[in-house]
Amino acid sequence: MKFLTKINRSYFITLTIVLLISSVLGYLILHQVILNETKEALLGKVNLLKEQILETGEIPNLYPEIEVKKIHRLDKQEAAFKEIFIYNAEEDEMEPYLEYSAQEKIDDSFYSIQLRQSTFENEDLVVILALTMSLLLLFSFVILFFIGRRINKTIWADFEQNLAEIEHFDFNDKTDLHLVTSDIEEFDRLNRVVIKLTLKLKSDYMSLREFAEDASHEIQTPLSIARLSLDEILQQNPGKEMFEKIVAAINALKRLSGLNQSLLLLTKIENKQFKADQTISFINVAKRKLEEFDALLEMKKLIVETDFNEDFIVRMNHELAERLFNNIFSNAIHHNQKGGCIKIQIKKDEFRICNSGLSNSLNNETIFNRFAKDNSKSHGLGLAIVKNICNTHSLDIHYTKYDSHCFTIQRNTYK
Amino acid sequence: MKLLIIEDEIELLIAISNYLIKENYLCELADNFAGAREKLSMNAYDLILLDISLPDGNGLELLTTIKEHQEKAGVIIVSAKNSSDDKIGGLDMGADDYLTKPFELAELNSRIKAILRRRRFEGNSVIKFHEMAIYTDNMLVSIHRKNIKLTKKEYDLLLFLLINKNRVLTKETIAEHLWQDNIDMADNFDFIYTHLNNLRNKIKNAGGTDYIKTVYGMGYRFTDI
Q1: Size of interface A-B (CB pairs under 8 A)
Q2: Contacting A residues, span 338-397, partner chain B, CB-CB under 8 Å
């Protein structure tokens, strides 16, 4: 719920309650005031009436307002006000009246006087009150609405702008977070806290990132020296036994630097250091890889079936796209037997690579883990890299085993 | 052929220069930014090997100096960073190639030769060895003046072997050269063998001598003897 909606809603509720209470109170007060006024008016009328009888001796009668009767003697009855209803033929309804009945002695004669005055109908009162209150409510709301809109345009505009800025902030960007200052203390306080936090986070993130990269680069240099030195010994015609040992050492060093590079790549993917700034056609990637791996396919006598239905197009980094396809495809070659087959299927929202490997079904849970190794000499990071690339690009990967081992990469639709 | 090697790691600098001197290059060395800049402004080089992570400055900045003073020189950036941003940045600034550490000397040699061929193509585009000639401009190979038909990989393989003649190249080194780091399956380098056999057969069928010797079943050497 938006802040303004929330405020408006509570305004509305409070205002309604206040107006309801004041309506009831207003009704009661108004009713009482009208009654008192009417009483006063009636008492005034009695005096007028007495004077008229004294002067003219006539007894006025005007039903239902005035009813005067001559009586023989005074009862003990006291003067009193009474609220009554009298039928009105014209409007065909009962109308409320205030009645004043008294007995008076005028010029030695006794009179019973009944004066009545039509009062407000209660319903009319309620209707008028309700109408007034609704109008008030409506009026307040129109004003609130316009004030809210104005506030939104002025005060909240800065806030919204800052919010958008924070939403689009990327730790990989070189620029720092820039927030607009307003003259509202609370917002500025929030801005200061956010800026302080992001600066701290950014510097932490950068130093971590640099550490990972620096460490990995520092490892490459001694590895280079070791490899070059061993290569030099290799050129000095060592005997067979020595030769084999040196080659083993060189290959171990190669694996080590490969491992190092894979770990660095994994870190960089996790840190989202690759910008998804290219449009990748996986049909093109597949075609390129098929060409690249041609010799290997031929050697293992593998048959590749391709089904390029529609292109799978993703916004991502070129290097990562190649790596993604490469790792799954080279796995499919690696875990295949001579004369086996590989199926590559590309559709609009997915691509699938299946291979006729001999091994049993793999564990869907663990194969994507780091260092999840089978019996081979690989370092077990290939699928972890694939998984990480998928995770950072809203793609899903899963493994299934029916007749063949299949890896399917799908666009993640529920994001 | 005069080379300048800029590398802050002394042992690496010595290993590279020793190798390149053996390959008959004239080598000058610089192990820091200032020294490299001084050398660049004083002498003319055919090729510059540039490590971009130097202790006293960013090697990429040397590229501007190189542009100013060394118009004819080819540049290979050597970096521990396998980052495509650096790669593209360096190539944009006028470098000819980008080599990631750790690398093989044979690979370095083949890259140097390729750049020198490109930079000074007059007469340099043909590599001859006895009855064999490789025309690098149009990627043709002839034996006894008769063209033979090679696949792209076979051509690359032959060129790599010939450029590094007399040097033992392991299967892994060859595979790395042909497929870069796209193939990381340690136990599958046997397919190099298939390629090599095809190449040998094509050369022999054209009446050429098989100069490719197998070394203990683990490496190969292209040699006269």
Answers
A1: 110
A2: 376-378, 382
Contacts 24+ apart (CB under 8 A), A398-402: A398/A364, A399/A362, A399/A364, A399/A367, A400/A364, A401/A361, A401/A362
Cis before residue A64, ω within 30 degrees of 0? yes
Residue B111 and residue B187 in one domain: no
Same domain, B110 and B189: no
- Which pLDDT does position B76 carry in this prediction? 94
Residue A220 to residue B101, Cβ atoms within 8 A: yes
State the architecture of A278-411 in CATH terms: 2-Layer Sandwich (3.30)
- Band the pLDDT of B225: cuts 50, 70, 90: low
Judge if B89 and B135 occupy the same domain.
Answer: no
My answer on whether B11 and B107 are in the same domain is: yes
Are B133 and B178 found together in one domain?
A: yes
Segment A20-51, tens digit of pLDDT: 888 888 888 888 888 888 889 888 888 888 88
Segment holding B219, helix H or strand E: strand B219-222
A chain contacts of residue B172, beta-carbon cutoff 8 Å: 250-251, 254
Question: What single-letter DSSP state applies at residue A378?
Answer: S
pLDDT digits (tens, 9 = 90+) for A132-172: 888 988 898 888 888 878 877 777 788 888 888 888 887 77
Instruction: Let me know: does A364 contact A325? Beta carbons within 8 Å.
Output: no
A373 pLDDT more than 70: no
With a CB-CB cutoff of 8 Å, which residues 126-165 of chain A face chain B?
Answer: none
Task: Tell how far CA B149 is from the center of its chain.
Answer: 24
Which of B82, B104, B153 faces A295 most closely, judged by CB atoms? B153
Tell me the ipTM for this assembly.
0.85
Residue B188's pLDDT band (cuts 50, 70, 90):
low
Q: Tell whether A295 lies on the interface with B, counting CB pairs under 8 A.
A: yes
Q: Is the pLDDT of residue B57 over 90?
A: no
Total domains in chain B come to: 2
A324 and chain B: CB distance < 8 Å anywhere?
no
Question: B6 lies in which domain range?
Answer: 2-119
User: With an 8 Å Cβ cutoff, are A244 and B82 in contact?
Assistant: no
pLDDT higher than 90, residue B49: yes
What pLDDT score was predicted for residue B186?
46
Strands A80-88 and A66-71: unpaired
Contact A320, A266 (CB under 8 A): no
- Residue A214 in this model has a pLDDT that exceeds 90: no
Q: How far is CA A82 from CA A79, A96, A118, A119, in A?
A: 10, 10, 12, 12
A69 pairs with which residues across the strands? A112
- Shortest Cα distance, chain B CAs vs residue A359, angstroms: 18
Query: pLDDT averaged over chain B?
Result: 87
Domain boundaries, chain A: 3-127, 185-270, 278-411
Instruction: Find chain B residues with C-beta within 8 A of A228's C-beta.
Output: 12, 15-16, 19, 102, 104-105
